[in-house]
Amino acid sequence: MQVPVKLMLDHAKEKGYMLSRFLITNLESIEALTNAAKAKDSPFLYDIYFPLMEKSCLSCVEELAKKFISEIDLPSGLFADHVESVDLCIKAIDRGYSGVMVDLSKLSLIENISGTKEVVDYAHKKGVFVEGEVGVITRSSAEEVVETDPEQAKEYIAKTGVDCLAISIGVHSGFYEGEPVINYNLIRQLSNLGAHLCLHGASGLSREVMQRCILLGMHVTGYGTDPLFKYFGKIDEIRKREGSRFVDPSRIIIPARDEMQKEIEEKISYIKSEGQAREIISLYKNLSRNQDLPVNSLSKAGEKDKLQTLACAAGSIIEANNKNACSGSCLTSVNANICESNKNDDFTEKLIKDITNEVLKRINTKQV
Known about the structure:
eight-stranded parallel beta barrel, TIM Barrel, two-stranded antiparallel sheet
């Protein structure tokens, strides 16, 4: 079930855990993550490293993930990670991603702010969650760490309206050479700037480190290296034991997938998200029923979900109009998301009611 990322992350902050996203690269990684989340009753995001999208068959993986999201009864979504241009972010949004990370951190702060704001403005109209980055989160211990500057982060968040900030606190992606030196005080400084904080480079960090980061205000993280290491390690183990001519996929790939699942389950326990899925689903359904959906909730889910969301949103607009509280307007259609319109346009109460009635009629008669 696709649930707005912001709703899940707000819940994580309130309840004191981390929302996780795990890198997916093939069917087995999708199955491992899905099975682990089911076993732990945990919310999660399927994570695609977007720079590889044009160089590999990840578009197939993307479609598989969307299918799993539509079929599983767990709060989930599809996240585009480290998208390094505005155009690619817009492409990901238009392809139905629940969230994007716009990674312009290697540009000047002014350019980073400008590009991120363009993405945020486009994404929020479509209900898509946006993460940005200030400071440089490196890919290995050999690269120079550029920690996030609190003043720059404050300016960046204020000027972009970004939902979440990936911060550089002494960690990096990939394997660690020795224990990382984490700037916990920096987390504390950045935790009250008005955006959620994301921990990149979580692979290799202990349970104690992860839970300390939660206490200091970090509520979303991503894993890639550790689960993949377990997956390929199991393949190596089997091939070494059985010999190079052993090529039975069911006796190689399935055990590797299951090993990856075990690792993901352990990470879920690290970040304390176990058992949170049911409550999020209940919260989401109640919000939908009470017509109190957050702004970022109009994600590209199934047609029925889109129509139900439209009905709730239209109902809220009607109520606001009745109270003379709605000075702006929304352009709506039965088959698409609500888009913010020019605030000088007027949208009559009658038209909104007609749309709402049509939507509800189609849902009730099971025409979707």
